[in-house]
Amino acid sequence: MPNSEPAGYDPQSVERKWQRRWDERGTNRTDLAGATRPYFNLMMFPYPSAEGLHVGNVFAFVGADIHGRFRRLAGSDVFEPLGFDAFGIHSENFALKVGTHPAELIPRNIERFRAQLKRIGLMADWRYEVQTTDPRYYKWTQWIFLQLYRAGLAVKRRAAVNWCPACKTVLANEQVIGGFCERHPDVRVEQRMLDQWFFTISRYAQRLLDHLETADWSHSTRTIQANWIGRSEGAELVFATPAGKRITVFTTRADTVFGATYLVLAPEHPLVADLTTAEQRSDVQTYRRKVSAMDLVSRKVGDKAKTGVFTGSYARNPATGAAVPVWIADYVLMEYGTGAIMAVPGHDERDFEFAATMRLPCVRVVAGPAQDASTPLAAAEPDIPDGRLVNSPGFDGMPWREAGRAITAKLAEAGLATPVVNFRLHDWCISRQRYWGPPIPIIYCDGCGTVPVPEKDLPVVLPALEDFRPDDSGVSPLARLESWYRVPCPQCGKMGRRETDVSDTFLDSAWYFLRYPSADRDDLAFEPGLTRRWLPVSSYIGGNEHAVLHLMYARFITMALHDLGLVPFEEPFRRFRAHGTIIKDGAKMSKSRGNVVNPDAYVERWGADTFRMYLMFLGPYQEGGDFRDAGINGIRRFLDKVWALVDGVAVGPQTPSPNPQDPALVRLMHRTIQRVTEDTESLSYNTAIAAMMEYVNALRDGVAVGSLLSPLAILLAPYAPHFAEECWERLGGKGSVMDAAWPRFDPALAVAEQVELVVQVNGKVRSRLPMPRGATEATVVNAALADPAVQRFTAGTAPRKVVFVPDRLVNLVV
Ligand SMILES: [Zn+2]
Ligand SMILES: [Zn+2]
Questions:
Q1: CA 785, chain centre distance (Å)
Q2: CB 3.0 to 4.6 Å from 66: which of 386, 444, 602, 718, for a disulfide?
Q3: Which tens digit of pLDDT belongs to each residue from 173-204?
């Protein structure tokens, strides 16, 4: 029978067939209005670079897609949209480099990305795709700006900002790496004073922090956000000058005020000019000029040599009454606290270094149990456990925490202290002096001042500008287009001028999840009924590199819209999980290292399903793994085995045995369903795949029948969707495997077979323990140590050595 020769697994034809079917049958479409169990499965939408999809993107999306498919099989109506985040400097700089206009380049990149994303088999409902560069989208980005503007949350003010001379625009502090631009690692970032639009996110700092406590988010992401918000409790203390100027400092350590031997002001502090004496004037001016050429981030670097200049003035320490000198130094920043600090060299490292360099006095005011008031300080001692105050008349002997509160209270009576809470989180600068972004919808009129563009005139379309190169003026290239720049004032009709800055690309991505369900609506940003039904997002999966900017801004915008009555929830994401990173040859993939993997070549050679499973098998999804070419063969062999098993059932003669089901295999099937269910649920995809592999190996040694294989096809569907569809069909399944129900396991059958393990202590048998077959060493040792019969001989000490023979014996050497 030459015709019955089973055809081997050909991924390309299987994947082509099922992608066509999905399109024809609308398999991946979600009925947004009719869904009864909505589950919004969000993944971070990509920036469509010219290079195409990166293997890191594929890793992220496949992991999120597995989650969405799993939820759908488990009974939810899953909505899995995708889109493109295509505005911003990355696109613009690349367009400048290759000499093609971004308006031409971006649609091409998007097309390529979309094709690649479809090829890897995502369950995306492409009817709801969004593109941030589409006027249909950014009309609503501008609308959101106007809502915040009316609420007083968008303000324009002059501020010191980081300026990259190569980008020719402002940068967020987080985009400055060790003093250099993140996009231009050899370009030093400067500081400039510019008029900028800010969103006042700092007003939301406490709320953003409070909600983190109960958020179902990856622990690492929560920690990064909490640190970025940077709440500190402390006090503002007043140091007055003989001329009556009050210098306010913020400190978290009011207990050390008796050790404050000098003050340091930020060079930009408004009191510096008044405090500078005639003989110090030229030194102070020179220093201030030098500092203004530096960026804010390198000023924060702790380990550089301390520099500074004495102003010539003194101020009174509110606790000691002594006159202390007032200095300026670059390590103090205007943006944190009050822009002035009291320096306590005995208990602060930077102050100690500064005092040592400038020969300023240093006094101990906190002593540990083995120290006293005269114990010398060889270095700063910032944190002394069980420290008590010394050299602080009236407070000596008091524990330092208590003393901080007591001193603040005492000085408050004299009007010299105020308890305050401070945050590191500063306002979000959203204006960019570039071309490729949504114009900020504001018009300036000589008569009326700042006038918002009326909503009916939105969008303010980004005009086609042939020469969109930025210049060094600090003004966007849009200002060069007179016909666009000059516009009648919406209030009085006289000639006014448009705002020429465009908004930060992080504003585009701060609300895109709200747009998805309403992406087909042009009459509103997000439809209230759909928003209530589908949001907050059920699951959000993305990279931890977005823990601070994107994820914080998205939370802030949602909170602000909530307060304006525009959305019925305060937090946008019910659950957030950070995925890991794929590395190659021990390093993160990057063009400069030459270790970037092109996913297309792999998909072409192996098929999307094998590549998907291979990526997920590299390591725990939330940790990532090392990309090694060798391993992909193993996945392919696994799928070939499944193919052959299905072939044997679907094509070959039915097994004649009346009771073909081997009880051991049935038990293993239930165990496998349980493991794959639990591991897929917890994003532990690599161990879920391992469980399926074990099962398939056992099936090959036994008698495979359809009832043992159909559940496997469903378990495989999230991981290798095309392959699973084909198996499902061959096994006689109806419709799409994605419409099947996730298999249930019988807990009684899923329990592993019990074996009796011998427990020895120092080679002598002391107990016997029933354990599930295959129990790990750690499980067995823990069980043994908890056994009273064993405890009599271990005397509560941890074993020095463990000898473990799986399923048979454990010997604890104590
Ligand atoms: Zn730059
Ligand atoms: Zn006017």
A1: 41
A2: 718
A3: 778 888 899 888 999 998 888 899 999 999 99
Please tell me the distance from the alpha carbon of residue 395 to that of residue 408, in angstroms, as a whole number.
Answer: 12
- Short-list 510, 610, 531, 537, CA closest to 68: 537
Cβ-contact 248, 237 below 8 angstroms: yes
- Reply yes or no on whether the pLDDT at 4 is more than 80: no
All residues with CB under 5 Å from ion ligand 1:
164, 166-167, 181, 183-184
Distances, alpha carbon 647 to alpha carbons 17, 36, 229, 709, 731, in Å: 18, 38, 58, 11, 9
184 CA → ligand 1 middle, Å? 5
Q: Which string of b and e fits 101-118 if b means at least 16 CB within 10 Å? A: bbeebbbebbebbbebbb
Euclidean distance between CA atoms 321 and 377, whole angstroms: 23
Extract the tokens encoding 778.
Answer: 């750690």
**Cα 761 to middle of ligand 1, angstroms:** 65
Order of all β-strands in the sheet with 581-584: 587-588, 581-584, 624-626
The answer to whether the bond into 459 is cis (omega within 30° of 0) is yes
Judge contact between 458 and 438, C-beta under 8 A: no
Distance CA 365, CA 260 (A): 9
Per-residue three-class SS string for 195-264 = EEEEECHHHHHHHHHHHHCCCEECHHHHHHHHHHHCCEEEEEEEEECCCCCEEEEEECCHHHHHHCCEEE
Instruction: Quote the pLDDT of residue 2.
Output: 41
pTM over 0.85: no
Question: What is the β-pairing status of strands 809-813 and 754-761?
Answer: parallel
Name, in order, each residue with C-beta under 8 angstroms of 266's C-beta and a sequence gap of 6 or more: 328, 332, 333, 334, 339, 340
3-class DSSP assignment, residue 103: helix
Sign of CA dihedral 689, 690, 696, 702: negative
Span from the CA of 311 to the centroid of ligand 1 (angstroms): 35
Q: Concatenate the DSSP letters of all residues of 629-646 into one string.
A: GGGHHHHHHHHHHHHHHH
| Rounded (10°) CA dihedral 217, 221, 224, 229 | -40
Instruction: For residue 90, count CB atoms less than 10 angstroms from its CB and return exposed for 0-12, middle for 13-18, buried for 19 or more.
Output: middle
Ligand having the closest approach to the CA of 187: 1
Buried b (16+ CB within 10 A) or exposed e, 418-449: eebebbbbbbbbbbbbbbbbbbbbbbebeeee
Ligand 2 center to 241 CA (angstroms): 47
Could you tell me the distance, in angstroms and rounded to a whole number, from the CA of residue 563 to the centre of ligand 2? 30
Name the pLDDT band for 772 (thresholds 50, 70, 90). confident
Q: Over the stretch 643-667, which tens digit does the pLDDT of each residue have?
A: 999 988 865 545 444 345 678 888 8
User: What is the C-alpha to C-alpha distance for residues 399 and 230, in angstroms, rounded to an integer?
Assistant: 25
CB 578, CB 547: distance < 8 Å: yes
Q: Are strands 83-84 and 130-131 parallel, antiparallel or unpaired?
A: parallel
Preceding amide of 536 cis, omega within 30: yes
Q: How far is the CA of 176 from the centre of ligand 1 (A)?
A: 9
**Side by side, which strands form the sheet with 442-445?**
449-452, 442-445, 495-498, 486-488
Strand partners, 40: 79
Contact of 106 with 133, CB cutoff 8 Å: yes
- Which residue in 338, 341, 337 sits closest to 315, CA to CA? 341
798-812: per-residue pLDDT in tens? 889 999 998 899 999
Instruction: State the amino acid at position 49 in one-letter form.
Output: S
Interval 478-494 mean pLDDT: 96
In the block, which residue shows the tokens 């090694």? 628
Report how far Cα 236 is from the mean position of its chain's Cα atoms: 33
pLDDT digits (tens, 9 = 90+) for 265-282: 999 999 999 999 999 999
Report the C-alpha gap between 512 and 56 in whole angstroms: 21
The 3-state DSSP composition of the chain as helix, strand, coil percent (nearest 5) reads 40, 20, 40
